[in-house]
Design a protein that fits this description.
CATH architecture: 4-Layer Sandwich
Number of strands: 16
Largest sheet: 5 strands, antiparallel
CATH topology: Chorismate synthase, AroC fold
Number of helices: 8
Number of domains: 1
Shape: globular
CATH superfamily: Chorismate synthase AroC
Distance between the termini: 32 Å
Strand content: 15-25%
CATH class: Alpha Beta
């Protein structure tokens, strides 16, 4: 199912939405890295459900356990690091009436065509809950990158847009306190009102999540097939709800001229950042800026046309606990995927530990 990510910082995730647990096994973590439960838990707490009216009310503490890979002093020992997060709030009964029906916008239908599996409670392996394991692994990558860059490398994310409400200002500190992780304090309430309006109609809203990585060393990545933006793009698009990605000014560059698109160069590299911190597949030292275009949550209460396992037309209304907008919980996932790619590229030959 494509459950392994990375070459040198290699992550294998496991678990389903309504299974006993989720988790990750990480290979390639150098020995001697200080690691604690609280460090990993900090990132998991930012993603876990039930934190505001704009997230699913499913109650999951998402408490992580470290099963292997640490010395008694709390240092990585160079062996595979195994992380486990037990599920506690699953309610499979909510999906009993969907066992023979395909949910529009979900992976149920193509999964059935490929694997012959009937729709699984909560989406099974295709559930957004799978991303908890990614965030746990991303926290380990964050610890590694913080150490090797002496704290210079910082990755953060927030909502650039919620529906048609677009942030003008960029305030990541504010976003961390906002229930939608909206980047602009002047329009945060407008964004909340938009989500509340969709919720009142049994609907959901899409979003644009912006990721920013500062303090990235120059030269991460490779030319040709392993371009840094190619690896990051694949990482972002592996998040279920992400449908498009742009770097820097991205789409706008296709509408301008070379004289306006090029980043001027100075003694220390580019003096501007229209390309989002990457040129020729390599990091330039400027901030890496990426925007993830996130579709609305497909589980909505409005009636939708669908079919049964037998191919019979039907009208479907989905009940249960679902996020009305994915942005606030997807942002930490986007950070994690960024960190996993950067850690993997940092450890790629020639490694510089």
């Amino acid at each position: 199912m494509g459950d392994i990510f990375g070459q040198y910082f290699r992550v294998s995730t496991f678990g389903e939405s309504h299974g006993k647990a989720l988790g990750a096994v990480i290979e390639g973590v150098p020995a001697g890295l200080a690691l604690s439960l609280s460090l990993i838990q900090k990132d998991l707490d930012r993603r876990k459900p039930g934190q505001s009216p704009f997230t699913t009310p499913r109650k999951e503490p998402d408490e992580v356990e470290i099963l292997s890979g640490l010395t008694t002093e709390g240092l990585t020992n160079g062996a595979p690091l195994a992380l486990v997060i037990k599920n506690q709030g699953a309610r499979s009964s909510d999906y009993a009436d969907l066992a023979d029906k395909f949910r529009p916008g979900h992976a149920d239908y193509p999964y059935y065509q490929k694997y012959g599996l009937t729709p699984q409670p909560g989406g099974g392996r295709a559930s957004g809950r799978e991303t908890a394991a990614r965030v746990a692994a991303g926290a380990v990558a964050r610890a590694l990158l913080t150490k090797v860059t002496k704290g210079d490398l910082v990755v953060t994310a927030g909502a650039r847009a919620i529906g048609v409400v677009t942030a003008i200002k960029t305030d990541f500190a504010f976003a961390e306190t906002d229930p939608l992780r909206f980047l602009d304090p002047d329009f945060a309430q407008v964004a909340q009102d938009a989500v509340k309006g969709a919720m009142s109609e049994g609907d959901s809203l899409g979003a644009v999540v912006e990721v920013r990585a500062t303090g990235v060393p120059q030269g991460l990545g490779s030319p040709v097939f392993d371009k840094l933006e190619a690896l990051l793009g694949a990482a972002y698009l592996s998040i279920g709800a992400v449908r498009a990605v742009e770097f820097g000014e991205g789409i706008a560059l296709a509408k301008t001229s070379g004289s306006k698109a090029n980043d001027p160069l100075g003694p220390n590299g580019p003096t501007e950042d229209r390309h989002g911190g990457i040129l020729g597949g390599l990091s330039t030292g400027r901030p890496i800026i990426a925007r993830l275009f996130v579709k609305p949550t497909p589980s909505i209460k409005k009636p939708q046309n669908s079919v049964s396992l037998k191919g019979e037309p039907l009208e479907l209304t989905i009940h249960g606990r679902h996020d009305p907008c994915l942005a606030p919980r997807l942002a930490p996932v986007a950070e994690a995927m960024t960190l996993l790619v950067l850690a993997d590229r940092y450890l790629a030959p020639p490694a510089r530990l």
